[in-house]
Amino acid sequence: MSILVTGGAGYIGTHTCVSLLNAGYSVIIADNLANSKIESINKIKEITNKEVSFYQVDVTNSVDVEKIFFSHNIEGVIHFAGLKAVGESVEKPLQYYYNNLVSTIVIAEACIKFGVEKLIFSSSATVYGDNVVPFTEEMELKPTTNPYGTSKAMCEKILIDVVNANPNFSVSLLRYFNPVGAHESGLIGEAPNGIPNNLMPYLTQVAKGKLEKLRVFGNDYSTIDGTGVRDYIHVMDLAEGHLAAFKHIKKGVQIYNLGTGNGVSVLQLIKAFEEANNMIIPYSIVERRAGDIAECYADVSKVEKELGWTAKRDVLEMCRDAWKFELNNI
Fold first, then answer.
1. Phi and psi dihedrals of 129, rounded to 5?
2. 20 to 30 A Cα–Cα from 92, which one of 71, 119, 292, 310?
3. Is residue 146 a contact partner of residue 91, using CB atoms and an 8 Å limit?
């Protein structure tokens, strides 16, 4: 039995594939390589010394997706594939709604058609919107600050309705906070095509001299130092969270926050990076970015209690691993 990982060549997908393979699972990857590279597949094999099946397909295409389901004995699906940049979603809402909703519908339809009853969905803390921190899974969702968050909340609702109509179906909705860092080998990490939308890869490219300086979006929030506060989680902790969720999945819908439970400001992260890697990062304060909120960090008590999972790696380790990957990423 195999696990199908959509978006498995991407940042979180590659690290999760490594965790799955090391835990003894067989892995099938479906990815259109829109924001990832084929080399990532080879790096997964190099790290684990195991083979994976790879299909370069867009999972909004139901015909291509069904061919994969038909060709393999699939035990479950981990659905990462989707567009993920908050700022870009404000500029391109239709692209985000189409890609994220249609891909989720296609995957759910294929699961039902082929009798695959386990689905892990890559959701986001953005579904909480501008809520009271720390965010708990029982909160009312307020994903009105950007189309990306709204698309994730809509996908969650779709999957909840699918479970209501198919009682044997099992869905785990994992709400990520802010993944950073890289695999300790330095072989895989966050390497977006073009100018990065996320803070850490932008920061590492500044450190390497690819970009002139870091832009900090706003310093007038009601936070510890005026900059945005986020719950940064090491990507390998996040990957291990998926493994725990898959091992403990049960009929119905389970919802979990995957974070550390600690808020770190942008300026604090810059200082941690400087400390971890013994360097100075040039930055400038610019206007707030559309769709951003002041604070976002998790209550992780539910996932610790029900899955026995907790984030183990600290901010300095996140910064060291991210920089190690950047140095290896030519």
1. 65, -150
2. 119
3. no
- Strands (E) across the chain are located at 2-6, 26-30, 53-55, 74-79, 118-124, 170-176, 178-180, 214-217, 229-230, 232-234, 252-258, 264-265, 283-286, 295-296
Look at the block and give the residue holding tokens 């942008």.
266
CATH number assigned to the domain comprising residue 168: 3.40.50.720
Count of structural domains within the chain: 1
For residue 144, being part of any structural domain is answered with: yes
Give the max Cα distance, the chain.
55
Measure the CA–CA gap between 170 and 152, rounded to whole angstroms. Answer: 18
Q: At what angle do helices 315-328 and 266-277 cross, to 10 degrees?
A: 60
Give the pTM: 0.95
Residue with tokens 């919802």: 255
> Does 324 fall in a domain?
no
Instruction: Dig out the tokens for 196 from the structure.
Output: 């990065």
SS (H, E, C) 136-153: CCCCCCCCCCCHHHHHHH
Active site residue ranges = 148
In-domain check, residue 268: no
- Helices 93-114 & 62-71 angle (0-180, nearest 10): 30
- 257-297 tens-digit pLDDT: 999 999 999 999 999 999 999 999 999 999 998 878 999 99
Per-residue pLDDT reduced to its tens digit, 168-199: 999 999 999 999 999 999 999 998 878 888 89
CB within 8 Å of 142: residues ≥ 6 apart = 128, 129, 130, 131
Domain hosting residue 161, numbered range:
2-182+232-259+298-311
Residue 266 lies in a domain: no
| pLDDT at residue 330 greater than cutoff 70 | no
- How far are the Cα atoms of 42, 71, 116, 250 from residue 1, in angstroms, in the given order? 22, 12, 11, 18
